[in-house]
TrEMBL record:
It is a multi-pass membrane protein. The keyword Iron-sulfur does not apply. One of its GO terms (molecular function) is symporter activity. Its main location: membrane. This is Sodium:solute symporter family protein. Pfam families: SSF. It catalyses: L-proline(in) + Na(+)(in) = L-proline(out) + Na(+)(out). It is found in: Cell membrane. Coiled coil: none annotated. It comes from the Bacteria. GO terms for biological process: sodium ion transport. InterPro entries: Na/Glc_symporter_sf, Na/solute_symporter, Sodium:Solute_Symporter. Belongs to the sodium:solute symporter (SSF) (TC 2.A.21) family.
Amino acid sequence: MLSVTGTWSIYIIYMAALIGFGVWMWWREKNKSAQHFYTAGNSINWFVLCMTYIAALMSTWVFFSGPGGYYRGGFGYFMSELSYMPLFPVLTYFVMNKVWLLNTRRNYSTPADLYADRFKSPVLRFILAIVFFSVSLPYAAAIYVACGQAANVASGGLISNTSIIIFVGITALMFVPFGGVKSVAWAATVQGWIFMIALWTIGISALAFGFHGTLGDAVASVWNNTNSWFSYPGPEKWAPYSARLGYPLACAIGWTIMLPDVFIRAGYFGKDLGAQRKLMQFQPVLQLIVWTGTMVIGFAAIALVPGLTGADTELVIPYLITKIISPQTMGFAVILMSLFVWGTLAKGLSAATSHLLVAGSIISEDILVHTLKLKVSPKAHMVIARISVCALGVAAMMLAINPPSLIWTLIMFAIAIVMPIFPVLVAALYWRRATKPAAILASLVGTIGVILTYKYGYGDAWYGLFGMIVSTIVLIAVSLVTKPLDDATLDEFYGHLEAAEDEYYEPDAV
């Protein structure tokens, strides 16, 4: 569809613009601390916060497995995903806003910082660092794979996945270590609009060319040929009754709160409490826009190119462009394929760079500084931070070039494996009686529980729900039979939280 020169031009121009932006941000932020490099130090305004959050959240899912998921899972799968959205403002208000308040006083850098601050446990920090790292690095690698796949498909196989993975990986490493998270956040704001426009343009175009813009004809076609698409559990039974509970909770807790790159956005980025409130209000709307656009593409594909199975369902966008649109207008099909590549690149880099920064912070802060007690000057600390991100970027690139089967397993239950840590977070914020041994055991047992549910075939429906329940039970039971931290330590932690609440909330609103 696209020429080799045209495809490479899209990648080179886009990555050159990113590198230039990263250098500019580095020049502005070059004297900032490592904490500012990783979290922007509560300086992101509400609009950028909302856009970088949605860009980090969605990854390349929206152009590959997302439309394929709706193709195979049907409208019931779409409704299962939407059902969690009322929970997001609630969880953000009662949990992540408190994380943000604490961060204004405690200046955290990594997701594990808050837990270690509350429970004073290097062991807990190390456990959480391993869990969060095991999520971040494979995610970045999988996104590089998707960028390579997009170029390969768009060029008709003339460009190899490996060449694009290496190019994108190297140029991303030239972008991220310069400006840090602030450059990533501002770039993601632009990239977020790019991928949403690309998504909806492709979906509307497929319906327009396939059914001349008549939605009723598209619905009738699917109803006559694959009417199971409109009902539970869907054409391939992706949305059984168990998934109606497990999947929405996994989305609400694991995906939109506890994944490490979105955790620091929801808890550490916001400039003020107004930005946090805007995040609560606008994120469900933005997610609805993205998921509906993705569903429209899956719906158009089941109507126009039925019969796809397995991995082919993840390529429904190229199929729609090449089989439905290009026979009618090659020029517009080329534009749409360019949008597909551009959108994949924009979306992928937003998420990949976010995960690389989090993984780098885990290595430099949680492991080197806090676990191994490395003591260096602030300038050397910044050098270590940038080297950590570069090293992990190379590791992600190597994983992407030759991905082991384990990487796909980790991606599948990434949102599940972080769910057992959520009860520990809630207890840290609200329950003085929660103890250090309880937090450690709950995190370990809950994570093992999630792994076992996948091993025995329950994970695809229940995700991390069983692990989270076990974690909650262990946390409460062990806390009641073990000694809490001394009052002075607890008073310091909760005193900072109360002081922040007094500063940011009006008296009658507390």
